[in-house]
Amino acid sequence: NAALAHYSPSNGSSRTLSAREMYLFDTGGQYLDGTTDITRTVHWGEPTPLQKEAYTRVLMGNIDLSRLVFPSNTAGRTVESFARRALWDVGLNYGHGTGHGIGNFLSVHEWPVGFQSNNVPLEAGMFTSIEPGYYRDGEFGIRIEDIALVVEAQTESEEEPFLTFEVVSLVPYDRNLIDLSLLSPEQIRYLNSYYERIRAHVGPELRRQRLEEAYAWLQESTEP
After folding, report:
1. Which family is this protein grouped under (predicted)?
2. What global pTM score does this model have?
3. Where are the extended beta strands (E) located within 61-115?
4. Can you name the residues that pair with 152 across neighbouring β-strands?
5. Residue 150 · residue 121 · CB < 8 Å
6. What is the pLDDT of residue 131?
7. What is the full DSSP assignment across 143-193?
8. Is the pLDDT of residue 104 over 90?
9. Which end of the chain offers a freer environment for a tag, N or C, measured as fewer CB atoms within 10 Å?
10. What is the CATH number of domain 22-182?
């Protein structure tokens, strides 16, 4: 069912999950101080080589766009191909947008921010999702979605401000699906830095709430 990018369950299509397949969950909530929208894909068993490579390439695209430094006033459509490049390298692609604006206690899909041709240029302070994916009809679907804040980048040049993204979704990716041999040293460094932030921000809160099982899972899932 996850091969449908925006699947909704029904009595005719719902079925029991098993540990022998991928599971995609697109989650979120609306709170007084913001709206969340985050997607993770997991496999509790033994993924096929194609599933593992496709997932890793989706993750590479997510990382490459998230760590990109670009000139201010750049349109999202100008940079969205960074999220697709690792997939394009092996002839894969996805058929939906790479990201959309996030409303503050408003719509989950909040225009005019995003990466499509009719979105406004990116500016510091905007929130957008970054969500590359890959879908194989009748078999499986992969999407990795984070919310990112557009922030000013620290560069050596002082001529004009450049921008980058600060990912604010703090949830580990599925280690079972990552083929480390495909990742560049820069991508691995980014991943380790991201996991350090997750531990620093989420770990103490889980401890405060005495959620020891969740804390143990978090520590295991964010090993370097």
Report:
1. Belongs to the peptidase M24B family.
2. 0.95
3. 70-71
4. 163
5. no
6. 97
7. E-BEEEEEEE---S--SS-EEEEEE-------GGG--GGGS-HHHHHHHHH
8. no
9. C
10. 3.90.230.10
